[in-house]
Amino acid sequence: MFESPLKSNARNAWSESQEELSETEPVSPVSKGNRGKKKKNRRQQPQQQKIEKRSVSAPQLCGEESFDGDDEQSEKRYTDYDKPIVRGIFQIGKKSHDVLLTSMRVTWSPIQPETPTGQSETLRRTEYVELKDVFGVKVKRRRSAGQETGGTLLGITLFQCKKKGPKLKDHAIHFNNMSVDHCEIWFKKLKEILSGFQNRPKSLKVFVNPASHKKEAYQIYRDDVAPLFQLADIKADVTITERKGHALSVLKESNLDGYDGVVVVGGDGSVAEVAHGLLLRAQMDAGRDTDSMFTPVRATLPLGLIPAGSTDVVACSVHGIRHPVTAAMHIIMGHHQEVDVCSFSCLGRLLRFGFSAMFGFGGRTLALAERHRWMPPGQRREFAVIKTLANLKPEDCELSYLPVKKVQTETLDPVKNEYLKDDMEEEESWTTTRGLFLNVSIMAIPCLCSMAPRGLAPNTRLNNGSMALITAGNTSRAEFIKHLKRYNSVNNQFSFSFVETQTVWAVRLRPRSQSSWSDDIAEDNGEYDSKNAPIISSEGAYPWNVDGDLLEVPSELLIRLHPQLLTLFGVYIEEAEEAHIKCSCI
Length: 586
Description:
Ceramide kinase-like, NAD/diacylglycerol_kinase_sf, 24% helix, 23 strands, ATP-NAD_kinase_N, lipid kinase activity, five-stranded antiparallel sheet, Lipid_Phosphate_FormReg, elongated
């Protein structure tokens, strides 16, 4: 049984593609059944004989003398673009093609016989692929069932990254030629060119959270991501996380010098942990004191996100869609996107780095969901939302912020992030408000997801040097639910009198209530018991939702923006392109 030479799936192509050429003997592509046809074609034009002879000979290494006189137009067309490297004959599909490799593209056109007048019957249709879109090249062999090495040489296969809407997919282009010498020259030249793309990673540290969402993270990596990394010749050092904080401890203790990037396969909680670990490691290497106010340095390694969670807002914000193959292709192609990051500090001590935070309704909902981890993820989320809405209460807070307009005269250095001046502590530069708030959101990225395709903070961007401060004041439960439903529609979710938005670069929030949250969730009917005790155990500790992770803060929290502190594999996306999902609980 033979494998099909025309399969374009990455995993099947890898199983039949090998880089070793020395094990295979040269095989002539001319079979015995063609001998009779040769006698009938003896009277064909000399040019046709030249084409047939070239198809079984070694490829032409292109120089000044590589082109014949009848190829002057081709020479002019190619040299106007870039310099030719090698030229040869390959079968693509069912036809023979004249294929030319330059430093920037592979171009091919079908070989057609000439008429007695010396003119081609039809114009040659030229196709090409840009090498900047090619991420892998493999030698293709046909092997029998159970055969692991050797096999009949079929040719070489290029693997291209193709874009369709927000999705990126792998596409295989097969160039068939059974000559070992011919394929070896092309293979080496292509590998030499592809190795020159500097942004593309060669070695990655990968963290996989097997407990993420529906526990599909490892399967997603094994089936969708790992085969693509193999095609791109990327070495992956995989760590399967065993507990919360496992990835953070590995990043703090391991030597990361041999890696070109870090990849996390999981949900928003996993992404937040690895992003915090990368940035914390950068501060440790730079000798920063995280127990005092400091200016953070940028992370040295880019971070790749393979979505495998329930919402994946960070991945959607940089990819536009929850699609593991798209995320993997952004990593393979080396697409870099600088991203603003927040730091969260309490009493002058750094708690963590992150992208977004919610206090009030958002924090209480997450804290309640964490207490019911035994429930399925979807049911747990809906239960927490309904329960928190039923016990909806405003938070008595003192909220201070630094508007962006007040620091426009400052000189911001996005590389060194030296933008936190001493005047940040001056009381007159802060705008302060006191009152009751149902929810307070601070977001440095748009936070796109299927339930909010325009984003939780549509007025901010990935790296515009500002945060969105969104406050929902005290109002009726019905009005607040209307506000929540607007996130899933095309209507403006901020067009309510109790909702205010500000563009800021620093926020202070100090709760003025002295009671702990356990008092707020107590049931009127007395069903509350110690078995269902909340995570917030100490009096005066308040729940924050930071990137989908629960953060306990006993007092005032300071949130500062650090422009372009982290590099992610991805590109800027205006709006999530996947189908909208409505929350059935409201």
